[in-house]
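User: I'm putting together a teaching handout on how sequence relates to shape, and I'd like one worked example. Could you take CLASP N-terminal domain-containing protein from Rotaria magnacalcarata, show the sequence you're using, and then write out its predicted structure as tokens right after it?

Assistant: Happy to. First the sequence, then the structure tokens directly below it.
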Amino acid sequence: MGQSLSASFRLRIQQKTQEKIEQKERRRQDRENRSRQQDFNNNNNNNGDTQYDNDMPTSSTSTSRYSSQPDLSTINNDIPSAPRRQIDPNKNSILPSFPTKQRSRVAKKFMARSQTFNNRRDIATNEQHLAFNRSSSEDRTLEQLRNPDHVYREAMESIASDDWEQKCSGLNLLQLLIAQYPDTITQNLHQVVLVLIQEVKNLRSQVARFALSTFCDMFKHLKRNMDIELDLTTKAIIQKSAESNEFFRSDAEKCLQTMVDNVTLQKALQALIAGGA
């Protein structure tokens, strides 16, 4: 059991632990630096206010840079006016004149561009309408998710079925609930974990991998709510990683990595050690 996980995964766990420790130390140093910088800025502001108070003029008749009235005597008001353009009264228009044939060509090009723009707009509108044409199964799923308790019962009944396709369908509903209604799963967390552990041991590879993927979603969305169930889940996942199937080992390591990234790190390490990693 101790050799079931790869050395690279153990190295990632050690690196993750070291990163957590370094992050805490950096946050502490940043807080101290910000506090010192704030004190330094406050002292500079107080000193600057005192200096400016000493530089203010004492007499209202004195002329200095603090005077509120600017000196306008040096401004030259003799600004030359711009010459106005003369328009020839003999010309009917100031716009350039085009021959009749050239005007017709310009009009045809404009009409062609307008038609092309209208066609593109129609295509975009049609594509937009097509994007909203969902299948009936998707509409049924959205309608079901409005009642999460009913969906939860249906998912558990499907998982309890002997048909592996029904099991996969139930696990799919369970993943939708985990993503959109995590509170419903949290209320029934222990029951869900026990069911998934049984499905991880399923001889049908599709069902077992689907169960591992569901565990990944639980770690991702429920986060620290999974702390109380780490011992059971970690042991089952590590046992699955000991199998010779490369896909199972890859899925198990991915699931454990997701667990380490989202749950409490100390509890994750304790569960890994207790599980034989």
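A couple of points you could highlight for students: Residues 138-275 form a domain with the Leucine-rich Repeat Variant fold (CATH 1.25.10.10). The two ends are 7 Å apart (CA to CA).
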